[in-house]
Amino acid sequence: DSGVTQTPKHLITATGQRVTLRCSPRSGDLSVYWYQQSLDQGLQFLIQYYNGEERAKGNILERFSAQQFPDLHSELNLSSLELGDSALYFCASSVAGTRFVADTQYFGPGTRLTVL
Amino acid sequence: AQTVTQSQPEMSVQEAETVTLSCTYDTSESDYYLFWYKQPPSRQMILVIRQEAYKQQNATENRFSVNFQKAAKSFSLKISDSQLGDAAMYFCAYVMEYGNKLVFGAGTILRVKS
Hints:
By secondary structure, chain A is mostly beta strands. Chain A is built from no helices and eleven strands. The termini of chain A are far apart. The mean pLDDT of chain A is about 90. Chain B is mainly beta. Helices cover about 0% and strands about 55% of the residues of chain B. Chain B contains no helices and twelve strands. In chain B, strands 2, 5, 6, 10, 11 and 12 form a six-stranded mixed sheet that branches. Chain B has a four-stranded antiparallel sheet with strand order 3-9-8-7, with no helix packed on it. Chain B has a two-stranded antiparallel sheet with strand order 1-4. The chains are: A mainly beta, B mainly beta. The interface of A and B includes residues 2, 99 and 102 of A.
């Protein structure tokens, strides 16, 4: 158990819908990262938040957004869902992850999203 | 852009034997970090081992060790005394020293035969 929690474990929805994935980092970690794992694209970095502020962006679609709250939990919002958005979405956390140091990232169990 | 290549889509090893998984990466940075993560059938991503590029000594964690060749940009994982529980997908990953995102390879499926 990494100490990172994600809810829900599974999510099944229809095209065009909107969903919210939730992540709670390990106690003491200030950074939260979101990754998408799909069969065709592999593991891809989406976005990072550090202590409530967006720190880095990867290949995140405009239909996707995220935020980190004062209690440091994070939510990833996916809207106007398409079949191709079906994937495993991971949250990871690290102690700092600022641009001055690269911390080890610990992953949550993931949320499996299925878009029908 | 940094890339990570795992050239072995699948490997097999007999229980109690040793297996080596290969990883190469491409970067123009001099300082960075490399990781091996394990993803068992449960899909959980589990950290196996970490290597700092500035350290010449190869990292070890119990039965897991790496062979880090900085000049060759190679980072292989050796698993000794393989166990059934080692069966998983293994991902090699890279992050810049002042970076945020992990860049992953495509993964190697490891099968352990009893």
